């Protein structure tokens, strides 16, 4: 039986798992869950994961409710090679470092904006929230100085996690090529990956449409940057 993923394509955390599975050539059984509304609680998911969050990955008797743990698990268990999540201790530490950066620093900034719009129905985005995103762009741009990928010359799961978060931020604030040249090159290269649209682009477009609907007006992207 393939691993089962409780997911929603709008969620950047789920898109990172979808991207990892695709990169590994691994089929997942997918079960779509409503998110951004507590009106639709799924009983099975609630039992498996009392937080009722996605992604939740179930592989036989292993249940993983955190995206960054799930992507590492998939590479360790199903990867023919370890490039995406190196086994070498030093190399792995560098990947872990950026996974933690995404989980603890990057994602919360983006999640705060998305939740304020889609859950709390806020119609305006505070300048603090916008600055938090532009600061994050600046940081990631600095990480990418003289590098093709977040950790070095090889694509890793840290790129998958960061790109799904960053692409979600672009719904609100497009990446300025002049201000963040390294970040925009990295992001553009990602968009050329053959599995990018299916694993990230489609869900991102759905979230973009929801944000626009919730704001009740076209997003004024130019004013944000
Ligand atoms: N720390 C978790 C966060 C997961 C998370 O917040 N997922 C969101 C979607 S991006 C969710 O399930 N939201 C529904 C809810 O909180 O009710 C992870 O990295 O997997």
**Secondary-structure arrangement, i.e. CATH architecture of the largest domain:** Up-down Bundle
Q: What is the helical fraction, as a range of percent? A: 55-70%
Biggest β-sheet: count, sense, barrel? Answer: 4 strands, mixed
Structural class: alpha+beta
According to CATH, the fold-level topology of the largest domain is Glutathione S-transferase Yfyf (Class Pi), Chain A, domain 2
Widest sheet: strand order? 2-1-3-4
Please characterize this protein's 3D structure:
- This protein is an alpha+beta fold.
- It contains nine helices and four strands, in the order βαβαββααααααα.
- It has a four-stranded mixed beta sheet with strand order 2-1-3-4.
- β3 (56-59) and β4 (62-64) form a beta hairpin.
- α4 (89-118) packs antiparallel against α5 (127-143) and α5 (127-143) packs across α7 (181-191).
- The protein is globular and about 45 Å long.
- The mean pLDDT is 94.
């Amino acid at each position: 039986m393939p691993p089962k993923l409780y997911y929603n394509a709008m969620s950047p955390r789920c898109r990172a798992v979808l991207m990892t599975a695709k990169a590994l050539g691994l089929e997942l059984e997918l079960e779509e869950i409503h998110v951004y509304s507590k009106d639709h609680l799924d009983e099975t998911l609630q039992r498996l994961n009392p937080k009722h969050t996605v992604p939740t990955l179930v592989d036989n008797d292993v249940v993983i409710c955190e995206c960054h743990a799930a992507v590492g698990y998939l590479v360790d268990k199903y990867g023919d090679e370890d490039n995406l999540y190196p086994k070498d201790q030093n190399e792995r530490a560098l990947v872990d470092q950026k996974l933690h950066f995404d989980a603890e620093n990057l994602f919360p900034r983006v999640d705060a904006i998305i939740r304020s719009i889609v859950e709390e129905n806020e119609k305006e985005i505070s300048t603090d929230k916008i600055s938090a995103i532009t600061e994050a762009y600046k940081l990631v741009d600095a990480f990418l100085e003289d590098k093709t990928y977040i950790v070095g010359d090889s694509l890793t799961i840290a790129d998958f996690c960061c790109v799904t978060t960053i692409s979600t931020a672009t719904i609100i604030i497009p990446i300025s090529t002049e201000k963040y040249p390294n970040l925009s090159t990295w992001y553009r290269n990602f968009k050329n990956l053959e599995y990018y649209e299916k694993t990230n682009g489609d869900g991102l477009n759905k979230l973009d449409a929801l944000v626009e609907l919730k704001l009740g007006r076209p997003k004024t992207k130019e004013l944000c940057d």
